[in-house]
Amino acid sequence: MMTNFSWTKQWYPITPISYLEWEHPTPINLLGKKLVIWRDKNQKWVAMDDTCPHKLAQLSLGSINKNGNLMCRHHGWCFDETGKCINIPMLSDEKALETACNSERSQVTTYPTQVLQGLLWIWADNSPTAFEDSTSKQAAVMPEYKVDSSATDWFMSEVPVGYTISVESSFDPSHAQFLHEGIAGFSPERAIPIQHFEVFGEMSAEDGFTLKHSGYNIFNKDMDATRKFTPPCSNTTIYKYSNGKSALFQLYFVPTKPGYCKHIGKFIVDSPKQKGNFWFELLPKYLQTGLKHSSSYKLSNQDLSMMHSQAVNESTGDKTWQKSYFMPSVADVGIVNFRKWLDEFAGGKPAWQSVVEAPFQELSDKQLYDIWHRHTKHCPSCRQSLVLIDKVKDFCQNFTAVLAILALLLIAINLPTRIVLIPLLFGIFSLICSYKLGSIRERFMSSIPKKGLPVVKL
After folding, report:
1. First CA to last CA across the chain, in angstroms?
2. Whole-number Cα distances in Å, 44 to 38, 40, 251, 378, 441
3. Could you tell me the sign of the dihedral formed by the alpha carbons of 56, 263, 340, 4, in that order?
4. Helix (H) or strand (E) holding 229
5. Which end of the chain, N or C, is less packed with Cβ atoms under 10 Å?
6. pLDDT tens for residues 373-404?
7. What's the count of helices (H) and strands (E) in the chain, helices before strands?
8. Nearest CA among 191, 43, 221, 29 for reference residue 115
9. The model scores a pTM over 0.85
């Protein structure tokens, strides 16, 4: 297999800026490397190895001090935006401090970063020429579109399925009619064979490839679709319909560590904005976002289930994908061409850094459908929603107890039944609210139902 594509000398969109906390460092993984992201005194985002050179503690467990430097939580070592150590609290001798801070052994490696289209991009290479090299390559940003893309938020999750299967699935549009039956009008009965699916232009290591295909259901049968893969992780899809309308789907698949991939996406549709729910829009913005996120996992769970089952079966065989897969239809052209690019130019899989790829392990349902690790812990809106839900839930529980005590007191002093019923009814209502809030809270944590059989239904 040829490997003239460099996995490290590339720009990766690692997270939407809206997912980052400006006051605290954030740990991330990229190609198996543990990195920390933080904002310096000049409001610039810094990416560096998440390892303190003192005793190898994670710098992401530390804090950003009042001088705008990253301070290790273990012993207070401080680092500036270049990765230079600028303070070691346990060294009181100025000459010894200067010598230690100027030593290469006290430095932390940093990586080029930039902010584009609301995403933080990281150059994954850490060679001495990394900052110079990064200026010679453009990031695979979303193309200009006739509809304002800033009105739509990025959505990010880190799923327990690898890079290859994740990207492959995005070049397989026909699966939607079957896997996603019952969502957004998808149905096997509405599926039609894709008539045209072909490579447009040439395939290359740096520019990837472009695919064009026709529709795959009775609603989009007359559309023209273009799917552009820009290495290492971008899939830009544009649907053009016969009525003149169009839609853009921008997807990124970032290989974080073996067996895991970060999915970042934005969907922009050329259609009038739908009128919102008046009462829903009275809620805090972060709660609106959190509730939208928590109600959208059914489709992604369906994808996750199929991709994981595929990974399980791939791990038990010793055949190449060409011999394992049977690809007799035009609809399979996208899958074949992505695999072809991966094999011919990129060594067949991501080049992991600083980590050894362990043998594949099948996940339990609890691991596979864990929402906290997949999304909630990364998303500030969902975390804030959880905090608010817990506060209101606690209030309802305490309020219920107070009302129950009040009802007992009213009974003890022999007041009329109709007066006693007032706190009792309010207490029952408060108890129901607490129970419902508990159910809503669970949607931020896991897709496994708390009552009935603990099975995720596709």
Report:
1. 38
2. 8, 6, 25, 20, 35
3. negative
4. strand 224-230
5. N
6. 999 999 999 999 999 999 999 999 999 999 99
7. 12, 18
8. 43
9. yes
